[in-house]
Amino acid sequence: MVTMVNCNKVKAMQTASADKYPNGYFKEKPCRCCKINFLPKAPSELYCNDVCKDKGIMNAYLLRNYKITFRTYRLMLEDQGGLCKICGSEGFVMNKDRHKMKLVIDHCHKTGRVRGLLCHNCNRALGLFKDSSAVLSKAIDYLKV
């Protein structure tokens, strides 16, 4: 299960009023996520509910940064049994106001290729070891002493 935290205003807190716009009303339109028609509270509103909005925002983030969709992320998560590919933990949401996923996407910084989903600790550890297998091997040798 993907834990998602809402970073934008929830629909109940949106305050746009149709009478402030030239037509004085809003037309129904399809949700960008689920395609169900809904009556927006503002012309710029793209999603029918908060769940669809969060999925849409997450999808845009993943496409922009990793060139994968939210669906691909969910399939990877399912393939890994919802566990970190290195340590096997469920991971955790680091900052509930900013992060949405327990497991983050690990990728090669040189090629951009996505390698898998890791907990925050394992992902940071690889970064601290400069994604270098040689440095990591030296650290393993050091731990054996």
Describe it:
The protein folds into 2 domains: 29-66, no CATH class; 82-145, His-Me finger endonucleases (His-Me finger endonuclease fold, 3-Layer(aba) Sandwich). The protein has a two-stranded antiparallel sheet. Strands 3-4 form a two-stranded antiparallel sheet. With 145 residues, it is of the alpha+beta class. It is 33% helix and 9% strand.
What's this, in brief?
With 145 residues, the chain is α+β, with helices and mostly antiparallel strands. The protein contains 4 helices and 4 strands. The protein has 2 domains: 29-66, no CATH class; 82-145, His-Me finger endonucleases (His-Me finger endonuclease fold), CATH 3.40.1800.
Can you summarize the main beta sheet? 2 strands, antiparallel
Count of helix runs: 4
* Mean pLDDT, all residues: 87
Instruction: Give the overall shape, derived from the CA principal axes.
Output: elongated
Q: What's the CATH architecture of the largest domain?
A: 3-Layer(aba) Sandwich
Tally the structural domains: 2
Structural class: alpha+beta
What Rg, in angstroms, do the CA atoms define?
A: 20 Å
The level-1 CATH class of the largest domain: Alpha Beta
Strand proportion, as a percent range, falls in 5-15%
Alpha carbon gap, first and last residue: 40 Å
Give the topology:
Blueprint: E1 29-30, E2 37-38, H1 50-66, H2 70-79, E3 104-107, E4 114-118, H3 120-128, H4 133-144
Antiparallel strand pairs: 1-2, 3-4
